[in-house]
UniProtKB/TrEMBL annotation:
Pfam families cross-referenced by the UniProt entry: Macro
Entries under SMART domains matching the protein: A1pp
Name used for this protein in its record: O-acetyl-ADP-ribose deacetylase (Regulator of RNase III)
Source superkingdom: Bacteria
NCBIfam families linked: PRK00431.1-6
InterPro entries for this protein: Macro_dom (IPR002589), Macro_dom-like (IPR043472)
Entry coiled-coil feature ranges: none
Taxonomic lineage: Bacteria, Bacillati, Actinomycetota, Actinomycetes, Propionibacteriales
The Macro domain, residue ranges: 1-173
Length: 174
């Protein structure tokens, strides 16, 4: 059985096989979770992302898709990068947000990971409100196959997000 939990914390300090990056489509770093992961991982993460852009993703990573790289100095084996829909730019389809989670889970399973830590994708500068972001994320995770994953952790950086994710987890536990 897969444990699904929500904790308050710093994603860059999580011990998991996979840390999920709420990336921008360039994959070359940015603000928020993306910037924090790049800073903590050191230059290896940026180098891996530059290789992806040069070899596989010349136009960047599309919204909802996921791709993995090495984790650099992070306490993880891999970083899975996914691009959330930017609600502030008119990307309001919850299915795109759900795809960030399901495609990341699919990739983690293919990599052989047993644990994965997610941020609240889209709930920062991309404008998704905490309750909606949490409902979409939890529903996507709970309704998707997680073969081999023992732990799925949502790592939230503030109390309103933590409360929203805990409420969504409680609502789906019945």
């Amino acid at each position: 059985m897969t444990v699904v939990e929500a904790v308050r914390g710093d994603l860059t300090r999580q011990h998991a096989d996979v840390l999920v990056n709420a990336a921008n489509s360039s994959l070359l770093g940015g603000g928020g979770v993306d910037g924090a992961l790049h800073a903590a991982a050191g230059p290896a993460l940026l180098a891996a992302c530059r290789r992806l852009r040069a070899e596989q993703l010349p136009d960047g990573l599309p919204v909802g898709e996921a791709v993995a790289t090495e984790a650099g100095l992070l306490s993880a084996r891999w970083v899975i990068h996914t691009v959330g829909p930017n609600r502030n730019a008119g990307q309001t389809d919850p299915a795109q947000l759900a795809a960030c989670y399901t495609h990341s889970l699919d990739l983690a399973v293919r990599l052989g990971a047993t644990s994965i830590a997610f941020p609240a994708i889209g709930a920062g500068v991309y404008g998704w409100d905490p309750a909606t972001a949490a409902e979409v994320a939890v529903h996507a995770v709970r309704s998707h196959p997680t073969d081999g994953l023992e732990l799925i952790r949502f790592v939230l950086f503030n109390d309103p997000l933590l409360a929203a994710f805990r409420t969504a987890l409680e609502d789906t536990a019945q």
